[in-house]
Amino acid sequence: xxxxxxxxxxxxxxxxxxxxxxxxxxxxxxxxxxxxxxxxxxxxxxxxxxxxxxxxxxxxxxxxxxxxxxxxxxxxxxxxxxxxxxxxxxxxxxxxxxxxxxxxxxxxxxxxxxxxxxxxxxxxxxxx
Length: 128
Hints:
This protein is of the alpha+beta class. The protein is 18% helix and 47% strand. It has helices spanning 8-12, 43-60, and strands spanning 15-20, 23-30, 67-78, 85-96, 100-108, 114-126.
């Protein structure tokens, strides 16, 4: 994977802990960088974690020399609030086509409580 220095991943403290074909696990702290004003994990931070996991997974499934994978659409349902700790995104591929992929991402807290469910569609583009 390319460097995460000076990226959203670095800013939010996102770490990739597992990469397999069709499966990615990523973590993110719930701290001052990722909380909203009421002290809970910001929904946008959850979406950033979900899309990061799907993007890394998609990148592993393409020809990295001639193609890139970018987000086309993402949705999320925020199930439960979190005030601190670490959240973990578990991304699995639902569909891999020639030009699109659909990823299912479940985000849980340290007690395995479901925090957020997301679906992310990635599109595969040719590199210029």
